[in-house]
Specification:
CATH topology of the largest domain: Rossmann fold
CATH class of the largest domain: Alpha Beta
Bound molecules: magnesium ion
Number of helices: 8
CATH architecture of the largest domain: 3-Layer(aba) Sandwich
Structural class: alpha/beta
Strand order of the largest sheet: 3-2-1-4-5-6
Radius of gyration: 18 Å
Oligomer: single chain
Length: about 220
């Protein structure tokens, strides 16, 4: 009975499990900012062309360097490894990322396989980001309609607010500086991996109870 009491979790990668923003800010300051005016995490914008103030070609060139030389050193968010270790057997997690599959697919899969032992798949919402500057603004909605998770975890407000009418039980915002202003009755806030882990364990236990009742 493969689906007995299964909890399906879909999660964003960057700044939920991977502390990518911190590394991107370091990369930006090291290579592209004068020492006197470094960016901080408060300045982070995942639309890199906007954050860097450069065109799409230059954005892709810089992102290529990041993927090749910096991505492997992105550290997991605090507690992310423990969340993986504590994930119940009936919980299944897949990643849904807005990263571009063409430019960052290999580096992303490698990072996930090294750090997120219980993730069973990596899905890319964007293909060909480098050829379309606005592709990065797309939502993850179309993919989630097909994936039908019970829980979706994300740090970017624009993705979450596009999902509030979908039948996903738990829409979870993972607290980062850029989502402090997000408040919606459909969206639950978690402030750490430890809290997220508890929520996954609780929901997975509920799924087993539901399955037993239905049997
Ligand atoms: Mg993210």
């Amino acid at each position: 009975m493969a689906n007995y009491g299964e909890l399906r979790v879909v999660s964003d990668l960057d700044d939920v499990h991977a502390d990518t923003a911190t590394r991107v800010i370091e990369f930006t300051n090291r290579l592209y900012r004068p020492a006197a005016s470094p960016l901080t995490l408060e300045d982070y914008n995942d639309h890199f062309a906007e954050m860097w103030g450069v065109d799409t070609d230059e954005t892709m060139r810089r992102w290529g360097i990041f993927c090749k030389e910096w991505m492997a050193n992105v550290t997991p968010m605090e507690g992310a490894g423990q969340t993986q270790r504590d994930m119940p057997r009936n919980a299944h997690m897949e990643i849904l990322t807005a990263r571009d599959a063409e430019s960052s697919g290999d580096a992303t899969r490698l990072w996930v396989s090294r750090h997120l032992a219980r993730v069973s798949g990596v899905n890319f919402a964007n293909v060909g980001w480098g050829k379309n500057a606005d592709a990065h603004k797309r939502t993850k909605r179309e993919e989630l309609i097909l994936m039908k998770p019970h829980m979706f975890i994300e740090d970017q407000p624009r993705h979450l607010t596009s999902l509030v009418d979908l039948p996903i039980r738990d829409l979870v915002v993972f607290t980062r500086p850029w989502n402090r202003g997000l408040s919606h009755p459909r969206i639950m806030r978690v402030s750490s991996q430890a809290v997220l882990s508890e929520l996954i364990q609780e929901r997975a236990a509920e799924k087993l109870v539901e399955a037993e009742r239905a049997a």
